[in-house]
Write a structure and sequence with these properties.
Length: 400
């Protein structure tokens, strides 16, 4: 029997999704849908239950590589499936046959028996399989605390699966399960990381970028498009809104006291973002603000800027250390794009001494100096939309 072939699959573990009880099927169906979208280029069959999801494919290595970008997956493993059998010695021989491909000195066997009708308990299965390995492989030892190799066995209802050290997934919730949000995406380090953090919590993001030609360059815009491409790997696709902010920014610069330039500019950006978000049925705004990092991100500034919108504003990085943000940006491969030296709207016309404790009354007084409602309406009317899909060969489609 040991010479018979075994089916090789990818097994997905849910992690945090397992805490969802009555509505877990809604999350799992969304996860399956997202996995299917991510693996659209490959020939796959997907099955799932409340405990595990299984992906059958001949392109295992490519599929495993793609799964690292799918939120809602706690862990994924290449597993070997054998028919349901009470012959533990046969299971041990099959494990032994595969474990010889690994270089290790110490190991442990961990068994989970979700099928409680199976006649042997988990500890007994682990002991028997471990004994077979010790008997047939020299200089190996059992280490239950810090082994070089963990052999996992799962005895499920209709089959037995075994696998070795797994790969950690993104965790969190499947994209779209929490609804949709609009990410205020600049070309900096923080906002792409904020978008990534929101995606991991199940938020399907659209993105909004403010350009200000000729003060900002086409290179700055392309930089943001490239950041959106990276986020699309996790988000499946992204609709990127490009708003021409030139007239508004120039009007602010001509008419507003310079210490309030940044505050008023951010208030205008928030107003536009909320209107774009509502038009596209987004439930929240998302940005990369971190408390105290710059003048517009003091608690006083955040309060005065935030008051122009009624939509919730989510700041995933509000309490993050800058070095922690950089670390995540490196992990998701946005850092090198973000540090390209092209200025965005937030870095031009920056005053030497921006106000850090702006006053509500002064903001309203200064905003009366410009016809911002007309300017905002014009900017929104000319919203350019770029659709970026992970499944596009060029990862970038034409302007709509």
């Amino acid at each position: 029997m040991c010479g018979d072939s075994m089916e090789k699959l990818i097994m997905i573990k849910y992690g945090e999704l397992s805490t969802k009880k009555d509505n877990i099927n809604l999350f799992l169906k969304q996860l399956k849908k997202n996995v299917e979208f991510a693996l659209d280029k490959y020939d796959v069959e997907i099955e799932f239950d409340k405990g595990r999801m299984f992906v059958k494919t001949r392109e295992i290595d490519k599929v495993v590589e793609r799964l690292q970008y799918v939120a809602g997956i706690h862990e994924y493993n290449i597993v070997f499936k054998m028919d349901y059998s009470e012959d533990i010695d046969e299971l041990g021989r099959r494990v032994l046959d595969k474990v010889k491909d690994y270089n290790f000195n110490s190991f442990r066997v961990t068994t989970k028996r979700s099928n409680k009708k199976y006649p042997r308990e988990s500890m007994e299965v682990s002991r028997i399989v471990g004994a077979i390995i010790l008997k047939n492989m020299q200089n190996k030892k059992v280490d239950v605390h810090n082994p070089d190799l963990t052999i996992n066995i799962e005895i499920r209802l209709n089959a037995i699966y075994f696998y070795f050290n797994g790969e950690k997934g993104l965790g969190g919730y499947p994209v779209t399960s929490a609804g949709k949000g609009l990410l205020m995406l600049s070309g900096g380090i923080d906002s792409p990381v904020a978008g990534y953090m929101a995606i991991k919590r199940g938020v399907k993001i659209e993105a909004l970028y403010f350009e200000s030609p000729p003060h900002t360059s086409i290179e700055a815009k392309n930089k943001v498009i490239n950041l959106a491409k990276r986020l699309a790997l996790y988000n499946n696709d992204i609709k990127l809104h490009v708003i021409n902010f030139t007239k508004i920014q120039e009007a602010i610069y001509r008419n507003i006291p310079h210490d309030y330039l940044i505050t008023i500019m951010r208030r205008m950006m928030y107003r536009i973002s909320e209107r774009i978000a509502r038009r596209n049925k987004c439930k929240i705004l998302i940005n990369g603000e971190s408390i105290g990092q710059v003048a517009s991100q003091t608690l006083s500034s955040m309060g005065v800027i935030n008051e122009v919108v009624r939509m919730p504003v989510i700041r995933p990085l509000a309490c993050f250390d800058k070095l922690d943000i950089i670390k995540i940006s490196e992990q998701i491969d946005t850092y090198n794009i973000s540090i390209e030296p092209y200025e965005d709207c937030c870095t031009i016309f920056v005053p030497k001494h921006p106000v850090i404790n702006p006053e509500h009354d002064k903001c309203e007084e200064y905003e009366k100096l410009i016809d911002y409602e007309t300017l905002i309406s014009e900017a929104i009317k000319n919203d350019d939309i770029i659709r970026i899909s992970d499944n596009d060969d060029n990862k970038f489609s034409e302007l709509l």
